[in-house]
Amino acid sequence: MAADIPQVRAGENAALKRWLPLLGIVVIVLYCLAPFYWMVVSAFRRPSDQFSNAPLPLPFSIQNFKDVFASGNGFGRGLLNSLIVAGSVTILTLIIGMVAAYTLARLDFKGKNLVLAIIITTSMFPGISLVVPLLKLFVDIKWINTYQAMIVPSLSFALPLAVWNLTAFFRQMPQELEQAAMVDGCTPAQAFRKVIIPLAAPGVFTTAIITFIAAWNEFMIALSMTNKKSIQTANVIVSQFTGATGRDQPFGSQMAAGVVVTIPLVIAVLLFQRRIVAGLTAGGVK
Fold it and tell me: What is the pTM of this model?
């Protein structure tokens, strides 16, 4: 009987080791999804039930979504503005970031590591510290209530991380690829465009998704640099919902708008999750 005790304990330890990681995963998933679940449930409640704590939206209602897209809110225009700003930031970040990263990865020059250190250091600046000087500058050059007033600051926040990520990715690619292309008659620019960029697609795609999500969710700069509804992004317009009377809290409408704003990001991540994972893990094993 005494000899069976160690075997029982070994079996319990094995079961604990098998189930404990799964339990940790379940806790993390629930922790991440709980806010989104509550946002969806609150969005589908009736406006009169918006502060209910019931786990399901009964009776089911889409009135909050109708209120979000009411003509006076300007939410549809805000979505278009968010798409213009986030799309422009993503495209410009990739164009500038790929050229800068390829240069830093392939060329040997004095101070290259210092340049990389400065680039990553600039990403550490808190955005709030730049709002006041940027606001003063944009007022002077009459950029307030323009797309470039939102795109240029977002570009400065997105570029350091993009250059750093792409530099690490390009460094892992063998230089023999460009050399072989140039032996076949390509110029250095053609070798970069026709050989390197297609092979770097996973890293470029991952950088694009991360940049787009960051630009889509940006709020502080968009709020500070615009005061006209026709140019504001969806996030800013949601924060300025006033409710039916202008004084009540439009909690249900804000939750419905949050669902609408989140859907494009969820769809993008679900569609391209394999490429994102491939880009994030590329180079992890040599």
Answer: 0.82
